[in-house]
């Protein structure tokens, strides 16, 4: 997204020239979604990327990260794709 830039070496996120404080996991989710811009990324794939294992149905860890990213960067940034996962807005 034009107003969001990531610095992977420093784990910094900037939005409209202001630094946004993200946890490492939030940064990883955002980076992966940005690398796959325009594509829906499955919950399973995000879980594997974050934790190295399949996200269990009962686990809401990924949803918490998505919720926090939306809260910090704007509700419209990440869209839920029903039955698939998530994609950038």
From TrEMBL:
GO terms for cellular component: cytosol; protein-DNA complex. InterPro entries: OmpR/PhoB-type_DNA-bd, Sig_transdc_resp-reg_C-effctor, WalR-like, WH-like_DNA-bd_sf. GO terms for molecular function: phosphorelay response regulator activity; transcription cis-regulatory region binding. One of its GO terms (biological process) is regulation of DNA-templated transcription. The keyword DNA repair does not apply. Residues 1-89 bind DNA. PROSITE patterns: OMPR_PHOB. This is Winged helix family transcriptional regulator. Residues 1-89 form the OmpR/PhoB-type domain. It comes from the Bacteria. Pfam families: Trans_reg_C. The keyword Transcription applies. It comes from Thiolapillus brandeum.
């Amino acid at each position: 997204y034009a107003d969001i830039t990531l610095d992977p070496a420093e784990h910094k996120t900037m939005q409209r020239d202001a630094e946004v404080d993200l946890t490492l996991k939030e940064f990883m989710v955002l980076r992966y979604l940005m690398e796959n811009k325009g594509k829906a990324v499955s919950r399973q794939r995000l879980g594997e990327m974050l934790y190295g294992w399949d996200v269990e149905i009962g686990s809401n860890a990924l949803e918490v990260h998505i919720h926090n990213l939306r809260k910090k960067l704007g509700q419209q940034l990440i869209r839920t794709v029903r039955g698939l996962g998530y994609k950038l807005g």
